[in-house]
Amino acid sequence: MAFVLILLTLSVAFANGANDVSKGIATLAGSGVATYRRAMAWGAAWTVVGALAAALIARGFVPVFSGRGILDMVPAGLGFPVAVAGGVIGWLLFATRTGLPISTTHALVGGLVGAGISAAGPTGVRWGAVVRAVGLPLALSPVLALVLVFAVLPIVRFFFRRLNAYCVCLERKTVLLAPAAMGANVGVGPTLQVVAGSDCPPEVVSRIDALDALHWLSAGWTNFARALNDAPKVFALGIAAQAALGIGSGAIIALVAVAMGAGSQVAGWRVTHTLGAKVTRISSADGLAANLTTAALVGLASVLAAPVSTTYVSSGAIVGIGIRGGEVRWTLVREMMAAWLVTLPIAALLAGATYGVLARLP
Q: Which of 86, 225, 270, 358 gives 20 to 30 Å between its CA and that of 40?
């Protein structure tokens, strides 16, 4: 059972990476600054770094998401965390497969609630803690992000309007050797040449300007912050198995970090495409503003051990960009919000049913 729990914990970490890497890199791909493949590789790298850093900075989440902050009494044995992980992974995989961005945090809370009710009834759940962990972030995170991005976007555009006129370009050129004694000039190209200035030649291999460079950095920081917030919650699932198998916490944290990075790289495309291309059009300045907003709010929440949802913050910032630009696909936004609302009850039902089955096994 302990080995099964480790596998389920790593599966949750993989699914978390697949669904949540989009919260930092969707603006990179959606604005055309990076291809989806390059954006996912960048997001995966920062996800691993953030997950490893969580072992030092954000371990305050572990007690809450091991059940002690949600339930009056955590049931003994490995069946409880296995049921929670089963409820979470089922809904996460479905949402990721359909391209819906959802909250791993709220799926975990739902799993804890469902398994807790199955074990001890509704009175065993600290409903006030559930409201604080789920209800308040659901109500406040998107609105706060939307308001903040409205304030940040004009500042970003003002400071980078003139600076963005200067760029560094990589130009492909054919170099000719001087004439030989007999015969014509000899070409030895093409070669690559770095060109810095306010206007790139027409035949350039690639270009990067100040705004794009900061956009890349903001995407990396956003993925770092969201991994910092999520990794300890996933790690909390595997604590019981760690003790049973005699594995050090450092090894479990490293495995969770690698699994999150692998999910980001291998299966992060669908949700990234939803946020980056389907909600609204995103320019590089828009993406930078959205990422700065998301990274600031989620990073602060991680340090304070406040279980804010990166999904709601990032989605709220992107919707705010669309509202400011007068173009939002509200049908998709309503579908996303519906998925958010059913995350807790579906994860609870799956986890509760799993616990009920496991409790009847000899």
A: 86
Supply the range of the domain harboring residue 159. Answer: 2-359
| H-only helix segments in 121-209 | 127-130, 136-163
Predicted confidence at residue 192, as pLDDT, reads 46
Compute and round to an integer the Cα radius of gyration of the chain. Answer: 23
| Strand partners for 146 | none
Angle at which helices 330-359 and 310-325 cross, to 10°: 170
* Residues 244, 3: Cα–Cα separation, whole Å: 9
The pLDDT of residue 13 is: 94
The amino acid present at 84, given as its one-letter code, is V
Q: 14-45 b/e with 16+ CB inside 10 Å = b?
A: bbbbbbbbbbbbbbbbbbebbebeebbbbbbb
What is d(CA 119, CA 189) in angstroms, rounded to the nearest whole number? 72
- Kind of pairing, strands 167-173 and 204-209? antiparallel
The DSSP call for residue 183 is S
pTM, rounded to two decimals: 0.83
Residue with tokens 């590789």: 41
pLDDT at residue number 165: 55
Which residues 6+ apart lie within 8 Å of 88 measured at CB? Answer: 12, 15, 104, 107, 108, 110, 111, 237, 347, 351
Domain count, the chain: 1
Backbone angles phi, psi at 106, to 5 degrees: -75, -30
Residue-wise pLDDT for 240-262, tens only, equals 777 767 777 778 889 999 999 99
The CA distance from 83 to 361, in Å, is 13
Alpha-carbon gap, residue 254 to 152, rounded angstroms: 35
Low-confidence ranges of the chain (pLDDT < 50): 176-177, 185-189, 192-199, 201-206
